[in-house]
Each structure stands twice: as structure tokens, then as C-alpha cells.
């Protein structure tokens, strides 16, 4: 299977598919009962994207996991679902399922792929769309150069709303931020707790490549102070407008890029007095540009969104 198209299998799937009128630029779903998908990535953070408007998706958690499996399914960090909105003031509803099968609140790199998908598949003719996510609404804009800018909304900095329970942890002030000490593998990591619609724990490290992200990440993810688990970010400040970043994502492990993680890191860096907006964020998968004007203002993220291939999969080949 190359970068052009996946070969569909010939067995009936369990997904219930509706048949819309055929139209230019829109996939012609039919009643072959195949689950149609598009494989995409944003700076290497990769996704299976599903049209939930023209096919009804009744997948079990095991099937979400199998679809995301790199050995037995299509393979992805997250699965993104495009649906009709449940409110009148937005264009679409956007749902995200992690590779572990759990539904989560937000995914910034996925949001960029979302707007590229709905545009390329003829689901909208707008260059800018308002999208309903679990905890609010975000605005996605497709730029003329193919880059996508996402208005991520204002960060949530109140610990209880992250959610984060700092009781019993050491704390210290840095700039306008309060840092909290987490004991991990015999070291104290001083983290900023930030929500970008999903929870993040951001710490500054001397060298992201040398830091034990794969050892510390799982411990931070499951730390008792984060009741919904947390995305663990490790930020190296290069200069006041540039950082390097690695993120161990909740339910997915380390990914090549994390959009909400990049936003959270820049917010933390600006509040600590280490960074000035805009900030170029270097990740293993590519670069993102994050702009933030301060407390109460929205974070704006700009970066790429790329389609890799399209195909269909027989859900009978996946676990029930």
C-alpha cells in the first residue's frame, strides 16, 4: 500500500452506512458496509479520519483500538470523527479517540487535519469553520499557502479546572506562574499545569533529546494529582521565540508532535517570563507557530495538515 490509496477488502463490515447523493469532491459511500477512512498527519502526529455524517459509526472501544493499531489496523495516534453539530452556531462536531480507545477532549494537530478533510471532501466551501469539541468551540482557518490556523481558545490556568490537584505538592513562583514539584524517578520536575481543553503538565528541561521522556512520561501521565491523567510536555528553550518540544501524550505515548502540547508549552513559557510571542516550536515531526497575547486571550496555532492516503477497512477483521 503506497501513498496513493489503500486497497479495499471484499468482506462486509458491521458499520451501518447511509447513502448520500453523489456530489463532486465528496466520497461516494455506498452500502458495501465498508468503513471508509482517510489517513492524515499534522507535523507527523498521525490520524485516521472518519466521516461520521455519511456513515454511522457504532464502534466498540476494542474496535477503536484495533483501528489505531499499527500492526493489526490502519495505525494512528488518534482517530478523528467528523459529525453534524448538536448546536446551531457551529459548522461541525469534532470527536477524538486515542489509540487506547478512550475519547478525549481536544487535539490541536488533529484540528488542522479536520479542516483540511472537510474542505477536500466537499463537506464545506468555507475557508474558516467553527467546530464543536467536547469542552467548547474552536475556529479553524485554511490559509492560501495550505497551512492551517486554529483559534484554540483561551488557556485554562485555574488548577481545579485543568483538572489538577496540587494539595501536598511543593510550589514556587516563577514570573506570573506557579510551579509545582512532581517527584519522578528520584528527581523533582517543576511543572506548569495548563489546560488547552485537555490537561497538560509542562516542564523545562536542558536538552529534550537527552531527557528521559519515555521513562518519566508514563509516570507523569498517571500522577495522582491529575484525576483525568495528563499530557506530559518537556520543553527546551532555545531563545525567546524558539523552543524544542517533546510530548508524552495521554493514551497515545510519545507522538511526533502535539498541537495542544505546543500551545500549553508556549503559554507556560510566556507566563514564566522565558518566551515572547510568537514562538516557533520544533517537534520531531515538524514545526508549529504559536501566538498568545496573554491571560484571557486565545492561543493561535499555525501548521501543516497532510493527507497520506484513503481507503476502506472491513470491521469484521477487527476485534468486536
From TrEMBL:
Stretches the record annotates as Disordered: 1-29
A Gene Ontology biological process term: lysine biosynthetic process via diaminopimelate
Active site: 107, 258
MF-aspect GO terms: diaminopimelate epimerase activity
Catalyzed reactions per annotation: (2S,6S)-2,6-diaminopimelate = meso-2,6-diaminopimelate
Subunit structure of this chain's protein: Homodimer.
Keyword Amino-acid biosynthesis: yes
Record's GO cellular component terms: cytosol
Function summary: Catalyzes the stereoinversion of LL-2,6-diaminopimelate (L,L-DAP) to meso-diaminopimelate (meso-DAP), a precursor of L-lysine and an essential component of the bacterial peptidoglycan.
Sequence positions that bind substrate: 45, 78, 98, 108-109, 198, 231, 249-250, 259-260
Site (Could be important to modulate the pK values of the two catalytic cysteine residues): 200, 249
Family note: Belongs to the diaminopimelate epimerase family.
Protein name in UniProt: Diaminopimelate epimerase
Entry-linked Pfam families: DAP_epimerase
PROSITE patterns: DAP_EPIMERASE
Coiled coil: none
EC number: 5.1.1.7
Organism: Cupriavidus basilensis
Keyword RNA-binding (UniProt): no
Location relative to the cell: Cytoplasm
Lineage, uppermost ranks: Bacteria, Pseudomonadati, Pseudomonadota, Betaproteobacteria, Burkholderiales
Pathway: Amino-acid biosynthesis; L-lysine biosynthesis via DAP pathway; DL-2,6-diaminopimelate from LL-2,6-diaminopimelate: step 1/1
Alphabetically ordered keywords of this record: Amino-acid biosynthesis, Cytoplasm, Isomerase, Lysine biosynthesis
Amino acid at each position: 500500500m503506497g501513498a496513493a490509496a489503500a486497497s479495499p477488502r471484499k468482506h462486509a463490515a458491521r458499520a451501518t452506512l447511509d447513502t448520500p447523493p453523489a456530489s463532486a469532491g465528496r466520497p461516494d459511500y455506498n452500502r458495501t458496509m465498508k468503513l471508509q477512512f482517510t489517513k492524515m498527519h499534522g507535523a507527523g502526529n498521525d490520524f485516521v479520519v472518519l466521516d461520521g455524517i455519511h456513515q454511522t459509526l457504532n464502534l466498540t472501544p476494542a474496535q477503536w483500538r484495533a483501528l489505531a493499531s499499527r500492526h493489526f489496523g490502519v495505525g494512528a495516534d488518534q482517530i478523528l470523527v467528523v459529525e453534524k453539530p448538536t448546536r446551531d452556531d457551529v459548522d461541525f462536531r469534532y470527536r477524538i479517540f486515542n489509540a487506547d480507545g478512550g475519547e478525549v477532549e481536544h487535539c490541536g494537530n488533529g484540528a488542522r487535519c479536520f479542516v483540511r478533510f472537510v474542505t477536500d471532501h466537499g463537506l464545506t466551501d468555507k475557508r474558516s469553520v467553527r467546530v464543536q469539541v467536547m469542552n467548547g468551540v474552536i475556529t479553524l482557518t485554511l490559509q492560501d499557502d495550505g497551512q492551517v490556523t486554529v483559534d484554540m481558545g483561551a488557556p485554562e490556568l485555574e488548577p481545579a479546572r485543568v483538572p489538577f490537584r496540587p494539595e501536598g505538592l511543593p510550589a514556587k513562583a516563577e514570573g506570573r506562574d506557579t510551579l509545582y514539584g512532581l517527584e519522578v524517578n528520584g528527581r523533582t520536575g517543576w511543572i506548569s499545569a495548563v489546560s488547552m481543553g485537555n490537561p497538560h503538565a509542562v516542564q523545562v528541561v536542558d536538552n529534550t533529546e537527552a531527557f528521559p521522556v519515555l521513562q518519566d512520561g508514563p509516570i507523569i501521565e498517571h500522577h495522582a494529582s491529575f484525576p483525568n491523567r495528563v499530557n506530559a510536555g518537556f520543553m527546551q528553550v532555545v531563545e525567546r521565540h524558539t523552543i524544542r518540544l517533546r510530548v508524552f501524550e495521554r493514551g497515545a505515548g510519545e507522538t511526533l508532535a502535539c498541537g495542544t502540547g505546543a500551545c500549553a508549552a508556549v503559554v507556560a513559557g510566556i507566563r514564566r517570563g522565558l518566551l515572547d510571542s510568537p514562538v516557533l516550536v520544533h517537534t520531531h515531526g515538524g514545526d508549529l507557530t504559536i501566538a498568545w497575547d496573554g491571560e484571557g486571550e486565545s492561543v493561535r496555532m499555525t501548521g501543516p495538515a497532510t493527507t497520506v492516503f484513503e481507503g476502506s477497512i472491513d470491521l469484521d477483521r477487527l476485534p468486536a
